[in-house]
Amino acid sequence: MSNEAIAKGEAALLRQARDKFVATFGREPVAAASAPGRVNLIGEHVDYCEGFVLPVALPFLTVVVGAYNGTDDCSVVSVLASGEELRASFPSPLKTTLEPGSPPWANYVKGVVALFPGDVKGFDAVVVSDVPIGGGVSSSAALEVATFTFLEELTGTRVEPVKKAQLCQKAEHEFPGMPCGIMDQYIVTMAKKGHALLIDCRSLEATHIPLEAEGTVLLVVNSNVKHQLTGSEYPQRRAQCLAAAEALGIPSLRTAKTDDINKLQQLNCDELVLKRAKHVIEEISRTEEAAKKLPLNDLDRVGELFYESHVSLSNLMEVSCPELDRLVDILRSARGVYGARMTGGGFGGCVVALVEEETVEVVKKKILEEYSGNPTFFVCQPSDGARSIKLK
Ligand code: GLA
């Protein structure tokens, strides 16, 4: 198996989805949409505290195609990268109020169908994707936003982008039951090629930041490990941050300052709550600084901020794992690497590194030699967000 993850591209995924739809349902699809995965450059575990985040969209995509079927039921076939096929069906929301259920993967689709603000009659759909699943690059948000955009195309009901991201986030809260922040659905909806997006998770306004440092690339290393802790750990982190804000008497940690750590100490705050608050306060200011330094090509400083972010996620937020820490250590000792950090929710998944283009191959070789797991790599090309696709 190659260690290089290569994006198939929208045209190939669309062809695959369309062929599968015709073979399964015996007619042509009439609506189609795609949505990408994402990598967060910095601003980790702060979106649910109304902080700043700086993600980019990836060229890896989820494509949904389909058509009404003239019944009261929705049928969805999902083809995984391995070729395995998953099937699910549930009633149209016009017939009954949808509830989360089994199979678990279908809750991402069902939740969006349930919350879509238009009349969704029974439909058949096929989903294909090359977004790595469980890699911390937002395969969930890609599926939600691709489904939503497909429904916009199918029903003709269009929804303003921020509202769309919020509805997809709500779907993830209410159906799979993951209390995520807004970052993933927002970037997947609003990304622009060649840019990162500085999202203010309080005002929900965003600024596109051009990524044009010549001779420098974003190398993503997938550890290909996923520790099964995420289910309970993520909601705990969110609750601890909320507890810190409540103790300070503020709506979220966004408005907290470094001094507030002393205040929390004086209030005899739980030690874990204190550590989480420190991470969030410092990570928000690191993210604001990185967004200023990136367009100035001050890559040394951006790299330092990446390392600081990782150490904080590992020691204060405690969402890293030995594999991610090891990858960052290897990258720290490699020539031509400005900085590296874990990206996404944590407990496995990917590391993102800012690397001189001419040293990328040497850096990969070093990782293959020194890391005992089975990593995959890709150089991240910041890509566009979700779109509907016109079928000919
Ligand atoms: C997951 C969540 C996001 C965000 C990140 C951590 O990806 O879906 O909302 O909280 O973790 O930054």
What does this structure look like?
The chain is an alpha+beta fold and 392 residues long. The chain has a domain of 208 residues: Ribosomal Protein S5, domain 2. The protein is built from eleven helices and 13 strands. Strands 5-4-6-3-1-13 form a six-stranded mixed β-sheet, sandwiched between helices. A four-stranded antiparallel β-sheet has the order 10-11-9-12. A three-stranded antiparallel β-sheet has the order 2-7-8, sandwiched between helices. Helix 3 packs across helix 4. The longest helix has 23 residues. The protein is globular. The model has no long low-confidence stretch (mean pLDDT 96). Alpha-D-galactopyranose binds next to helix 5.
Could you give a short description of this structure?
The chain is α+β, with helices and mostly antiparallel strands. It contains 11 helices and 13 strands.
Give me some keywords for this one.
alpha+beta, six-stranded mixed β-sheet, 392 residues, four-stranded antiparallel β-sheet, Ribosomal Protein S5, domain 2, binds alpha-D-galactopyranose, 11 helices
What about the largest sheet?
6 strands, mixed
Sheet with most strands: strand arrangement: 5-4-6-3-1-13
Strand content: 15-25%
Q: Regarding CATH, which class of the domain at 10-210 and 383-389? A: Alpha Beta
Series of H and E elements: HEEEEEHEHHHEEEHHHHHEEHEE
- The CATH topology name of the domain at 10-210 and 383-389 reads Ribosomal Protein S5, domain 2
Structural class: alpha+beta
Ligands and ions found: alpha-D-galactopyranose
* Mean of all residue-level pLDDT scores: 96
Share of helix, binned: 25-40%
Low-confidence stretches: none
Say what oligomer this is. Answer: single chain
The span between the termini is: 36 Å
Counting DSSP H or I runs of 4 or more residues, the number of helices is 11
Shape: globular
CATH architecture of the domain at 10-210 and 383-389: 2-Layer Sandwich
User: What's the count of strands?
Assistant: 13
C-alpha Rg (nearest Å): 21 Å
